[in-house]
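Researcher: I'm preparing a figure for a lab meeting and need a structural model of a single chain. I don't have an experimental structure, so a prediction will have to do for now. The sequence is pasted below. Please return the structure as tokens so I can convert it later.
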Amino acid sequence: MKLPSKYIALLVILSLTGIFAYQAYWLTGLYRTMRNDLERSIAEAMRISDYNEMMCRVKRLRQTSTRHGTVDVSAGFIPEEEPSVPNKAVTVVSVANEDSLPQTVRTDTVFKEEPRSALHTGDGMDFILEDRHNMDELASYLQKGLHAGLDSFSDPDIQVFDSLLTLRLQREGVTLPHRLEYLYRGERFTDTLAVAGTPGYLPSPEARTYEYDFDAHSHHRYRLTLEPIDRLILQQMSGILATSFIILLILAFSFWFLIRTLLRQKTLEEMKSDFTNNITHELKTPIAVAYAANDALLNFDRAEEKAQRDKYLRICQEQLRHLSGLVEQILSMSMERRKTFRLHPEELSLQEITEQLAEQHRLKASKPVRIAIRIDPQNLTLLADRTHFCNILSNLIDNAIKYSPEEADIEIHCRTIGEGKKEAQTEISVRDHGIGIAPDRQKHIFDKFYRVPTGNLHNVKGYGLGLFYAKSMTEKHGGTLSVKSEPGRGSTFSIIFPTPPLTPPS
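Model: Understood. Here is the structure written out token by token.
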């Protein structure tokens, strides 16, 4: 059971819509995931930059020798001086008490790795934190506790924090201008203690803010203001978006080509059906006429009178010739597609062939026909397959007669073009003064089964094979067939053969 074309087109459109919808859903999900990851990276960058800012202050404490008790800080970072020792706690600060002697202070300011997921106790017991959330929460508490002790010695340096944060954001691919604020939030008010960031930057109404509380009571915080990160995410997704777009284009083109092919096959099937109906009628007509003439000779004593006998015999001969021509064209259309198809070229006299074909068409035409033949030079010859060349020229003459309204005035001109050059050619043109062909129809007249609408000219019969056959056979000979026409002023069909077009078989 064959589905109508509209249902096939509907299924294809639904399939494309489903693919587009799924692709859009997948890309939207990817966008959200990347956005959430980038926002988490920004928050993590603020936390790590805060930690590194504290380490910088610890270094300054070492240089000042201020006596405010002892502070021990352990952070699992690898120092630049010891790159071969992984995950070693290397930042230790000892500041002397007022009642004791000054202690040695050791610290480092270059950090290369995140803290290990472990808690070290004084009695030698180590606890490995398997849960990532518990580790993050513990690290947050430890960092805030470190702030509580360290901030009593010195205030946070927002400029150092801003420099560290800028470097960290650049590592994450965030290169947007930003504004950084150091805030104190009380119960009834919020005070801005310091401001840093990109010089001259003024946040737009669409700018996003990210806050990081660094004390246990959430009174002190950093506020980072950035422009929307959507453009950054789209830039990171540019490769995926381009690939998806190309895939969708390929799919859309493939489905379009599929629908176009199906519609063309349907049109071709309809044309073949019309051809079958037309050719059946064309084949039945000469058979019926020849049968009637033969029946008259056998059963109605028409054979006794010579004039009547000759008349009916000529009718039979003409109809059989017409029938033979129809069969020849059908067989030729089938043969020209076979790999075993071969031409049998021979040297042909154009004068002889054109005169014979002109006489045949004058005799069988149902309207007055005048055919003028001009051959330059008179003895011009052509190397071609006799049967197929005669069929090509006969089709052109037949069309010229059929599409001439009341009487046919045809000119056949054979000549050599490019004479004296290395590649001389032979041109045979057939010109009529008939109804002509519209410009938009001319590009289709050589298509199989195509017939030009004839308007009020209703007596034109055919099945759209003549010109297709003529062009196919001309190209088999290595030549070309073209047309020049104007509506109401006639048409000129030109055949151009190389000289010689073919090499005769040995």
